[in-house]
Amino acid sequence: MAISKLKVAVAGLGRMGKRHAVHLLARTPRAELVGAFTPDESELAWGRANLEPFGVKLFTDYDEMLKIEGLQAVCIATVTTVHAEEAIKAIEKDLHVLCEKPLSTSVEISRSVVEAARKRSHLKVMCGFSRRFDASYRDAREKADSGMIGRPSIIRSQTCDKHDPGGFFVEYAKFSGGCFVDMSVHDIDLALWFFGEDSIVKSVAASGIVAVAPGLKQHGDYDNAVGIVEFYGGKVAYFFCSRMMAHGQEDTTEIIGTEGKLAVNANPQANFVNTYTSTGINREVPPHYYGRFEHAFVQEANEWTTACLDGTKLPMKLSGALRAVEIGSYLQEALRTGRKLYFDETERRVEHASL
Amino acid sequence: MAISKLKVAVAGLGRMGKRHAVHLLARTPRAELVGAFTPDESELAWGRANLEPFGVKLFTDYDEMLKIEGLQAVCIATVTTVHAEEAIKAIEKDLHVLCEKPLSTSVEISRSVVEAARKRSHLKVMCGFSRRFDASYRDAREKADSGMIGRPSIIRSQTCDKHDPGGFFVEYAKFSGGCFVDMSVHDIDLALWFFGEDSIVKSVAASGIVAVAPGLKQHGDYDNAVGIVEFYGGKVAYFFCSRMMAHGQEDTTEIIGTEGKLAVNANPQANFVNTYTSTGINREVPPHYYGRFEHAFVQEANEWTTACLDGTKLPMKLSGALRAVEIGSYLQEALRTGRKLYFDETERRVEHASL
Amino acid sequence: MAISKLKVAVAGLGRMGKRHAVHLLARTPRAELVGAFTPDESELAWGRANLEPFGVKLFTDYDEMLKIEGLQAVCIATVTTVHAEEAIKAIEKDLHVLCEKPLSTSVEISRSVVEAARKRSHLKVMCGFSRRFDASYRDAREKADSGMIGRPSIIRSQTCDKHDPGGFFVEYAKFSGGCFVDMSVHDIDLALWFFGEDSIVKSVAASGIVAVAPGLKQHGDYDNAVGIVEFYGGKVAYFFCSRMMAHGQEDTTEIIGTEGKLAVNANPQANFVNTYTSTGINREVPPHYYGRFEHAFVQEANEWTTACLDGTKLPMKLSGALRAVEIGSYLQEALRTGRKLYFDETERRVEHASL
Amino acid sequence: MAISKLKVAVAGLGRMGKRHAVHLLARTPRAELVGAFTPDESELAWGRANLEPFGVKLFTDYDEMLKIEGLQAVCIATVTTVHAEEAIKAIEKDLHVLCEKPLSTSVEISRSVVEAARKRSHLKVMCGFSRRFDASYRDAREKADSGMIGRPSIIRSQTCDKHDPGGFFVEYAKFSGGCFVDMSVHDIDLALWFFGEDSIVKSVAASGIVAVAPGLKQHGDYDNAVGIVEFYGGKVAYFFCSRMMAHGQEDTTEIIGTEGKLAVNANPQANFVNTYTSTGINREVPPHYYGRFEHAFVQEANEWTTACLDGTKLPMKLSGALRAVEIGSYLQEALRTGRKLYFDETERRVEHASL
C-alpha cells in the first residue's frame, strides 16, 4: 500500500518562502508541494526555474491557489502584513496552516487568527518558532525537564544579527513591529517554554539605542535594545537584540536554575574549522539565522506534515505565538515611552510596582 | 516539463544500508529509490515497514534487483566482502555505482573494480569517503587552496570510535582488514587530498596495542594504533586510530602548513549545549560517526545523483579509494611486523631508508 | 646603591587581608611589610605563624600600628564598615592608602574619603578594583582603544558567585550594601572604564529574585538581580549578579561596539585541563573570584607600590570608586522599590523619562 | 625569630637566566639572591641595572661566584654546553643546584652529573622540567592518579614553537642536540611521568622535514618531526615537535586511558579575551613557552628553595632528566638514520622487532 503525502502549497517566494518551498519539495518526504503563490515577478521567475520542473503549479493569486484540487495545507511566508488574512482564509477553507512568525505585529490581529483556528480544532495551525525545533534547544529542554539545573529562575536570551550596511533593516523597520517584536519574540517564546506558558508578567523595562542605522529613528525603531521581563513566582528573563554584530548571527540563550545552568550557542560557529594564523586562532560564525537554524526549519516542516497527516500533537500551541507577540509589545511600549510597566497577578496593567 | 529522477536501488539494509536507503528515498530530491536488496530477514522486515509503503520493491537476490526495468544506478552497502563483486556486476550492467568504503580490504580486488570502471568511463562509479562531502572539511580545503596556510607539510589525523563494550568490533575485526584499513583509510584519503593525490610514499612505521578488547588479538588486530607515513617532497602524515574513546566519536584533522594551520573538529561536540553544574562545564560528543557525518552522507547521495543525471564531475576519483587502501595496507604490514617499510621514488619497496 | 622599599602595613587579616599581607610580603619586591593589625584572635594567630617570622610586627590597635617608625603606606582590608574611618586616619598621617573596595556602601561616606585624599594630592590613595589590573581586561581595553570594535555602545557584564549553601552570604548581606553595590560595582566600574568615566546616567531599572537563600529577604537583599543602566550619548550597560552558580565563579564582560565585540571570560576555566569521559568533555571553573583574579591582586600591589615610591600615576582615580558605588546605589534603589529612576543631563533625578 | 632564607646565586643572565634571577629575587620569598655570574657584557649591564640595586653581587668568573660567603645554592642557566661542568663544580662545593634543562645533550655527560649528585645525596640537585610544576599538568596527573581515565595507554604530546624568521633557531641548532632532544624532551618526560618512570622502550621510529628553515640542514636538524616511542607493557607515546607555528606556542598533551582521556592545553590561549570582528571570533596565543609556563617557573624556584631549606622531597628525580635525554637521543638516531630502533626487555638494542 502506497503512503499518502500531504498536498501542500506555499504562499510567498521571498527569502523564507523559497526556503519553505524547497524544504517541502525536497526535504519533507511525506509532503507533496503542489502549488506556490507570489505576486512578485522575480520570485515567479525563480519558481519557474526551481519549482515548475518538479510539477509545482505557480499562482499570482492566493485565492486561486487555495482552489487546487485536493489541497490539504498551506505554508504562509508572505510579508507579515498579510499573514493573518491569508491564514484565516486557509482555515476557512479547512486547510492546515504553517505560518511564518509573527501572525501579525498586532496583538489584536494575531488573536483573530488564534480564534479562527480554535473554531476548527481538527486543523493543525502553527506559527513556527524555529528554535522549538532546533536539536540544541530541545536537548536543553530535556535536560531542564530532567531536573539537572533545578528550578529555572533567570533566563538570558539574545537575538543578534550581523550588521547589514545595505539598509535592508531600515526599510524592513516600517512593518517589523519594532526590534523586540521582530527579533526578541523568539527569546520571549523560549522564556515561556522554560518558565511555563502560563507565566504571568509582573513588570517590564527596556532601553535602546540607535548606533549604526540612523534611518531607524524615523520608524521609531532601535538597532540595539535591552529589556527585562519579570514574572510572578520569582522568575526574570532579560533580553538583548541587536542588528550590529560584525561577526555574524549570534543567538545565545542561558537558562539559569537553582542548581545549574544550560547555555545554548555560547560559542557560535559556522562549522568545525579553526584557522591558526599570525593573528591567533579564528573561527567563523554563520552570517544569518538560516545558517544557524536550517535544520530546525526542515524539522519543523516534517513535524507539521506528520501532525497534519497523522493527527499527532504539534510541539507548540498557536496561542503561544500570540503570547510572545503580546509580551513583545509590552517591551516595545516600555522601550518607546521609556517607562516601566507594571501588572497585577492577573496581568492587568497597574500604576505602581507590586513589591 | 517534469524533471527526470535517477532510478536507483540499494544493496544491503544493514546499519549503513538503511541510512543510504532513507537518504535516497527522502533526502535526495532528484533520486527515486526503486529497489532494495538484502538476504537478511530482519533487514527485510525493516524494508517492508519503511520502504515498501513508498513504492520501493524488495529483493532477496542481488541479480534479480539489477533487472529492474529502467534501473540506472546502484548504491552498495552490503558487507565489505561482496562490495567488489556486486560493483563489477553493476558496472557490467551499465549502471552507475555508489559503493560504501572500502571497495575491498584487498588492494588487488579493489584494483579490479577500478579497472572495470575504467572500461566504462561514462559511468559514475564512486567509493564514498564521507569526509570529502563534509562542510567543514570542504571549508578547510578551500582555505588551504586559498594559500592561507602556505604549503601543507604535516598532517595529523585521527579516527577514534567510542568504546563498545558489547564486542561488536571484535566480530567485525575478522573481515575489517585491520584498524588502519578500516578506520584510518579516511585519514589517509584526507592526507592525499591535502598533499596531492600523486604523493609518493617514502616510508611507513606504526605501533599498536590491545588495551580494552583482548579478543582482537586472535584476529591480529589492535584497538589503538599510531602510524607515520612519510611522503617524498617533504610531507609527513601521522595517524591515530582507536576504538577506546569513553566520550564518543572523535575524528580530528590538522593540516599544518608553512604559514598556518587548519584544524577540523578540534573540539568535538554533539550540539550547541553546554551544561554548567557542580562538576564544571560539560558538553556531549556524538556517539558515532553518523552523528558527526550525517549531513555529509546526504550531500554525497545528492552529488552522486547529480553527477549520474547531468554527467558532472564527481568530487573524488575511484582510484583514490584504491590508493587509500593501498597505503592502509602498508600501515597494516608495518604494524603487524613491527618493521619500518621503505620505498624508492617510484614507490617500489626497498630495504633501507633513502636519506 | 641599594633600592629603597616601601614600608607598608596591613589592616585586617581576614580573607582578603591575609592575601594582601602575603602579596606585599612575598610577591611585591619593592614593598616591605612591616606591620599588620587585627582585633581578631584567630587572625592574630595566623599572623604569628605566617608574618612574624618574616619580621612583621602585629597590632591589635589600628592607631598604634600607624605609629610604626618610617611607615609610608597602609593597605586596608578590614570590614567595610571601618574602611573609610581607617583610610581617613591614614591620609591624615600622610600615608599612602590601598583600600579594599568599597570605600563604603554609603555614597556620602565614600565621598568623605575622596575629599580627604583630594587635600593631600601627593598621596597615592587607591580603592582597588581588581579587574583594572587583570591582564585580560587590560588587553580588551587596549583593543578597544585601538579602534578595533568601533565605538563601545552596549556593555553586558556579570559577577556570578558559586552558591555557598553554608549561609555566609546571608550574614554578609547585613553590611554588604546589597548585591549591586557588593558585586556589580566591579561591572559598573568596567562600564565606566569603557564608556568613559564622565558618562552621565539617564535611567536605571532593575529586577531581582530570592531563589536559593531565603534568609536574604530579612536584609532586603536578593540572590539574583538584573539591572539596566542607560547613559546619555547612546550607551547602555546591563548587569547580572548572582550568588547561585553551581559550577563556580563566572565573571563575564562583553563590550559591544559599532564595529565589533570584545568578550572577557566568555568561557570560564580553572586551568587548561579538559576531561573526556562517558558524560562528555568537561572542564572545571574557579570556585571563587580569587581563583580568577589572583594575579590581578598581585599586580595591583606592585603598581600601587611603584606609584607610592616613584610618584607615578595610578591606573584608576579614587573618585571612580565613589562613582561606581553611586551608580550601584541607584540600582539598589531601583531594585528595592521596583521603580525606574530617571535623570536629566546633569544627572539630577527627574520624574519622567527624557526621550 | 626571623626566618632564614636560602642564599642563592645565578649562573648566566641570558634569556632564561634573567628570568630565574628575577624569580629568585622577587617572587621566591624564602630565597635571597646574593650573586649572579655572566661573562657577557650586555648581560652584565642588565645585571647592574636590575640586580645590583637589590644587593646582588655580579661576577664574570663562575668559580669566584661560588666563593660567596655562606652561599648555599646555585641556579644554572648558562649555555647548555657548560651546564654539566658548572653543576659538578657546585655539587663538589656542597651547593644545591637547580639546572636548566638539559644537563647536557650528551647522555654520557648527563650521567656524570647524576653520578656526582648521587655521592652527595643530602644536596637538592634538580634539572627543571617546567611542566612538572604547571598547575594544569599537575591537575591532569591528580586526575589520572584518581583512576578517572583508567590505565594510561596512549600519550600524544607536542612542543610547537612560533616560527621565528630571524634565524635564531638555525644558530641554536649547532648546540641544541636536535629537535627531539631540545624540544620533545619535555614531552618524553611527561610520557614517563604518566606511564611510570621505569617504563622500558621497545621501539622507536621517527620522520622529519625541513620546511621553513633550510639552514637547519647544515646542522642535521629539522624544523618539524614526528616520532613514535613504544614501551613494553602496552604503552605508546607519539610526539610532534615543530618550529613552524604561525600563531604562537602550542604545547598540547593528551593522556588517553582505557576509560577516558585528559587533554592539557587543547585550546591554547594567551588570555581570556575573544575578539569578534568581520573575520569571525579570534583569540590570541602566547608567543613563546614563557608566556605559557611563567607561573610554573616561579613555582619551580619556590619548591626547590623549600626543598633546600627544609630537606623536603623534590617533585622529580635528577635521573629523570637523564632518562628523557636518553630517549630523546634514540629519537634523534631514528630521525637521522631513518631506521627504526628495537630494544629487548632490558632496553638493550636488538636488530629486529620483538612481536
From TrEMBL, chains A, B, C, D:
Sequence intervals crossing the membrane: none
Domain GFO/IDH/MocA-like oxidoreductase: 137-262
SUPFAM superfamilies in the record: Glyceraldehyde-3-phosphate dehydrogenase-like, C-terminal domain, NAD(P)-binding Rossmann-fold domains
Single GO MF annotation: oxidoreductase activity
Gene Ontology CC entries for this record: cytoplasm
Pfam family, one: GFO_IDH_MocA
Protein name: Probable NAD binding Rossmann fold oxidoreductase
Domain (Gfo/Idh/MocA-like oxidoreductase N-terminal) ranges: 6-127
Family: Belongs to the Gfo/Idh/MocA family.
